[in-house]
Amino acid sequence: MPCSKRLGIKRSHEEFTNFGVRKRLLFLGDSLIEYFDWSERFPEQEVCNFGIAGETVEGLYSRLRGVFKGVKSPDFVFIMSGINSMAMGDEGIADTYRNIVREIRQAYPSAKVIVQSLLPVLFPYISNEDIRHMNASLRQMAADEKVLYLDIHAKFLDEEGRPVAAYLMDDGVHVSGEGYRVWSDEVGKLIA
């Protein structure tokens, strides 16, 4: 069964079990998830990249059942979603996000669920102050739901609290190679 829809990687069960103890990592979210080669970054793990460019939090919620059918028993579920919802002016995503987390926990009771913060942007139509407020809501929701919260946002700020331009593409929203290195290093610390 393919785990990385973007790369079309197909591997047999035997390939994973004969390699040693591999962790199954499921990444859910929008283009920020989809556009990175998590399999290349974590070659010793089984990576399932279910990021979809342009997806909103509502979109992720609506496709969860399909994800559950396609991915069995991940060890870690990393969620990064919300920037597209905010770009559309939908700042009431916390309740839907909570429902996503609850359904994931029900479908994968032994998985560690990690809600990742929204990243800062250099984009005129999304306020970094609004992102900070949303991240505070996501952090509280994660605590309430007893899942992990990974603050990548803080890693993308300079010492004066401004977004690090080198971590973002020219559009001010998508992540550069250097930004993905910073982000994936933080993910790596959790799965070590």
Furnish the topology, listing elements before pairings:
Elements: H1 13-19, E1 24-29, H2 31-34, H3 38-41, E2 46-51, H4 57-62, H5 64-70, E3 76-80, H6 83-87, H7 94-107, E4 112-116, H8 128-145, E5 148-150, H9 177-191
Parallel strand pairs: 1-2, 1-3, 3-4, 4-5
Helix pairs in contact: 7-8
Characterize the structure shown:
The protein contains 9 helices and 5 strands; from the N terminus they run H-E-H-H-E-H-H-E-H-H-E-H-E-H. With 192 residues, the protein is α/β, with parallel strands linked by helices. The protein has one domain: 3-Layer(aba) Sandwich (Rossmann fold). It has a 5-stranded parallel sheet with strand order 2-1-3-4-5, sandwiched between helices. Helix 7 packs parallel to helix 8 (128-145). The longest helix has 18 residues, at 128-145. It is globular and about 40 Å long. Residues 4-19 have low confidence and may be disordered.
